[in-house]
Structure formats: structure tokens, C-alpha cells
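quick one before i forget lol
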Amino acid sequence: MSLQLSVLDLAPIRSSSLTEVGDVAASFRESVALAQEAERLGFRRVWYAEHHNMPSIASSATSVLIGHVAGQTSTIRLGAGGIMLPNHSPLVIAEQFGTLATLYGDRIDLGLGRAPGSDQLTFQALRRDPASAESFPHDVLELQAYLGTESRIKGVNAYPGYGTNVPLYILGSSLFGAQLAAQLGLPYSFASHFAPDALQQAVAVYREHFQPSPQLAEPYVIAGVGVVAADTNAEANALLEEVRRDRVQRFLGRNRTEPFTEEELDMVMASPAGEQILNMLKYTAVGDAAAVGEYLEQFARTADADELITVQSPLGADERLNSLRLTAAAVR
């Protein structure tokens, strides 16, 4: 199988309580270990996603985490999957990723998303205007120019950043991102690991309307897919059930002081709101190495993808590393 495989790491913070923050330092150690193992196994890249005000995710300061991991790896590509550009000034992001590219060379990617990656209250705390999402296409071009040699704002350049030409990727879960990536001639990464519904339509639009650019001559699609791999199918299915219950608990129980009981959680999972949350896991490979390999090959055809970015979903750190190893074995 010639398909490229990569990893999306949300830097999960493990906690036994919905109201207490877990060990963030341990989360960062696990992210380093995951990237080092992904490098050893031949994965193409590891990306980190910007989220805010989420006690279960530690990748909010995305560029800082990329730099931390880059300093402890040597060959694997590292990047943002993605930076939510409406939260930031394009100049500041150019400086951050220009710094990373200067320090770590041609290993740095910059994926860009249009969503805020947070709720409206958090968006206000970030001192951003919700209308800033409307300027996303302009901001992408401004950022791209800062990383090149011809700024769109006379007299303003990114130092570091100028001339680094950090490769850009457009992230999306709708036709908007597909159309923009096609128009700008940039690679397109679809968030099918949590927003599966428009996958095939968006990829088709992107491929049909793609315009070559200095960065990219032909369309290039990355699709997100969850993976729960274990030594046996039974063990993998048990891990998946843990993931399903944890996902619903965290999304629908976030404002509770006490978690749902097991009986309450059963009822919530069967509700329309619970089913909507569980649909986010629609594209998930589950099973032993053989089952996961078969699923990933079929999913790549379904998504018409050149590369899959896998979300290793088991909740435990050891189980996540084992899932990563079995994924690599599955496609050898």
C-alpha cells in the first residue's frame, strides 16, 4: 500500500474527573513519545490542533508545542492541523512559523482553519470579533505573502518568516474550504475524523476546481480518520466503547459538576444529542492490524485521499502507542 499515513495529536489531558484538570506535563511527555514512535515507524507527519478552554486538550499554544516536539525529533514533519486563523493576526502566525522553519528547516507545516476552535465566550476572551472569519481568504493570502518575499502590506514583513515559504494547507469540513483550497492551489485536509458528512462532496469539488500554484502542481487531499487498533478485535471493540462513552460524557456533561452515572450515560448515548456526537466517530478503523489495514485502504478509496491523518483514539497512553504501532504494521 503506497498510501501516506500521518498522525493528528490533540495532546489529550487525562483526568478521572470532569471538573479537575489532569497532568498537563504528562500530556506533553506523551506527545513527544508519540511523535518519536511515529518517526521511528515511518509516519509522514504529526500535526497538532488549536483548541481553547477545553480541559481535555493541551495543544492550545500550538506553535510552542510544535517547537517542543521538533527539538526532540529529527526527521518527521511537524505542523498545525490547524491554526484557527480568525483567532490571530497573520503577521504573528508568520513570525511564529517562520521561527519554527528557521530552527527546524523543511519539517514544518502550517494548516489553517476558518473556525474559531472554541465557543463564543472563549472567542470573546481571545479578543477577536466573530466577523473576522469572513476575512479568512484575505488573511490566508496575507500570511502566505509574509512567508514569501512580497508582502501585501507595504513596509511590513515577518522577521523571522520572510522567505521561509512554509507550506500552507487549508483545513475544512465544508465546501467553503474545498473551494478556497482549489482556488489558491493549496493542499486540502478534510476533518472527516469528527465532521464526516460532507467528505466526498468536498473532495470532489476540490479536485474538480483545483488551480495549480507555485506550491502545488496537482490536487492533494488529506483525510482524517480515527483508529482504535489493538491486538485482538475484541480488545479493540472494548476500547472503542470506552472512547464512545468518554466522548459523549465530555461533550454533553461538560457543564455538570458530577459525571453521568453509567445508567444515565446509556440513556444520553441513545438520545438524538448523543447520536449526533457518536456520528463524529463514523470514520473509525477498529480491530487488529489486519482489520485496520483493510479499513484504511477502503476509506482512502472512499475519501479519494492521497494521505490519511490518523487520530489514535484509545484513551490510555500505552494503548494509544500500541494502536500507532499496529496501524504502521497494518499498511506495511
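fyi The mean pLDDT is 93.
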